[in-house]
TrEMBL record:
Organism encoding this protein: Brumimicrobium aurantiacum
Taxonomy of the source species: Bacteria, Pseudomonadati, Bacteroidota, Flavobacteriia, Flavobacteriales
InterPro entries: Bflower_3
UniProt-listed Pfam families: Bflower_3 (PF21786)
Protein name: Uncharacterized protein
Highest rank taxon of the organism: Bacteria
Length: 154
């Protein structure tokens, strides 16, 4: 579950979510299967947008812990098509590379390093788009960077 959380955060970073977006477990669209809700650049656990469920705040190219925008609470930085650990943009701190609907591990774009595939409103494990490999169904609009952050770290 921690992996799903961080990957979704990455997806959100560069794209602006226009309205509330929900991320559901697997192929479900059921309200009871909501893993995360993204609203107004904030990520909440489950369907509740209460302060007590706030997990992440997205501001420009930074992802912060909770409701913070403090330098000490930066979890991820997005630059170009890559997601970095903390406030770094060093090549040694690349966690994910996002390219053409694929989320790769680290600085790689190798077929063997594909962690997730984003296709339409679904996120699949690896290079698959099979029904059985669906990890998340997205109800709304979200950027692939955000998905990488919520599902990771890997």
């Amino acid at each position: 579950m921690k992996t799903i959380f961080f990957s979704l955060v990455l997806l959100f970073c560069f794209g602006n979510v226009k309205a509330q977006t929900t991320l559901h477990k697997g192929n479900s669209n059921n309200h009871f299967d909501i893993l995360y809700t993204v609203d107004d650049n904030k990520v909440y656990r489950g369907s509740n947008t209460s302060f007590t469920e706030l997990e992440l705040t997205i501001s420009n190219d930074k992802i912060y812990r909770g409701d913070s925008q403090s330098f000490t609470d930066i979890l991820y930085t997005i630059k170009g098509n890559q997601i970095y650990k903390g406030n770094s943009t060093s090549f040694t701190d690349v966690l994910y590379t996002v390219d053409k609907g694929k989320i790769f591990k680290g600085d790689s774009q190798s077929f063997t390093d594909i962690l997730f595939t984003v296709s339409k409103d679904k996120v699949y494990y690896g290079n698959s788009t099979s029904f059985t490999d669906c990890l998340i169904t997205i109800d709304g609009e979200i950027d692939p960077f955000f998905i990488a952050i919520i599902i990771g770290p890997y």
